[in-house]
Design brief:
Layout (H helix, E strand, L loop, with lengths): L1 H24 L4 H4 L20 E4 L4 E3 L7 E7 L4 H17 L4 E7 L5 H10 L2 E3 L2 E3 L4 E4 L2 H6 L8 E5 L5 E6 L4 H11 L1
Parallel strand pairs: 3-4, 4-7
Antiparallel strand pairs: 1-2, 1-7, 3-8, 5-6, 8-9
């Protein structure tokens, strides 16, 4: 009986810690505070600035966040081995198809330790079911590192997504699977 109580207490403590960590990493916007109505945050609502970050894409070209100023950017930390990431990828493909023409850029930052040697074949080979179509990842994939994670305040779980405004401010952070409706509302509030 005592052993069961210890196990239950431990599980409850882990659940509480996970909830508090998730809540602490989410950046609130006006859209979150106004029953999810689309609004554009003003300077007083803007989050922390995007970090200075330059990473290589799968073609070996440098991609810098600063060169994307003026665009809404969704940074998505993921890995080829991450099952929740694989669930989320079709949503990101659909979001990119819908919002890229309006100024959204999605950057998938791979956290695979093996880097390009694992990520490039995965991106080239894998297809994802998007509304009945088998489609490849249609957004820019970058090879990440610990420095990139640290510059975003650390990544405590995968996937982790950070929405950045046209002005270069972090608007929303989601650790774990994104909610398609929640992230599209946040994106629409910035476009």
């Amino acid at each position: 009986m005592k052993k069961t109580a210890v196990i239950v207490s431990t599980v409850l403590a882990l659940i509480l810690a996970t909830y508090l960590a998730d809540k602490a990493t989410r950046v609130k916007t006006k859209a979150d505070n106004a029953d999810h109505r689309a609004t554009t945050p003003d300077a007083s609502d803007a989050g922390t600035p995007e970090p200075e970050l330059t990473l290589k894409d799968l073609d070996g070209k440098d991609v810098s966040l600063s060169e994307l100023k003026g665009k809404v950017v969704l940074v998505n930390f993921w890995a080829t081995w991450c099952e929740p990431c694989r669930v989320e990828i079709p949503w990101l493909i659909e979001i990119n198809r819908k919002y890229a023409p309006k100024g959204l850029v999605i950057l998938g930052i791979s956290t695979d330790d093996e880097g390009r040697s694992v990520v490039a074949p995965f991106v080239a080979k894998e297809r994802f079911d998007v509304n009945g179509q088998n489609l490849p990842m249609n957004y820019r994939i970058l090879i990440g590192n610990e420095d990139a994670e640290d510059k975003f305040g650390g990544v405590i779980g995968l996937p982790t997504s950070i929405l950045i405004s046209r002005g270069g401010k972090q608007i929303k952070r989601i650790t774990g699977l994104i909610s398609y409706d929640e992230i599209t509302r946040a994106i629409e509030s910035q476009l």
